[in-house]
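User: Thanks for the earlier help. One more: Na+-dependent phosphate transporter. Can you show the sequence and predicted structure together?

Assistant: Of course, both are below.
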Amino acid sequence: MPLCFLIKCKKEESLNKRESTCQYLFFLKLIGSLVLLIYGMKTVSEALQKLTGGHLRHILGAMTTNRFTGLLTGALYSLPLQQIVSLEEDEYHLVDPNKSFNIENERNNYRNQLKDQNVLDVNNKEYNYQTGDHYMDIISECEKLGDYVVNVVEARTDIKEKKI
């Protein structure tokens, strides 16, 4: 069986020629995809640097000053994204909406801890107020991501979170 499962070759070509052509085209597509990925990453990176000025490195350094805040920052991003990925893979019937609601509550707790830590760090002059403001903007974006995840879960499962 030819290696090219992504493209179809002409039927009039011989099997060996078709296999080599398909392999060649497959690798060209692979290299092209990698080039586009790297270009996209470069573009996003430049846009982030332009948006934050020279503060991005300082902000990320502040967000990961110790292992605890680094863990919390990672959790704010990874938990909601895992739920979205499982929803997008046509496995949404396996998604437990209660798990999403629990993740939202955990995320809210993490957010509150990070906000408190940020206030302490600004008061202790670990970094300046402007950096703390950027830090809070990032936390706010994480909160928006979490709310989006819960909205998607509610929409896909037709189950609403019961607010107390």
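User: Great, one quick takeaway?

Assistant: DSSP finds five helices and no strands in the chain.
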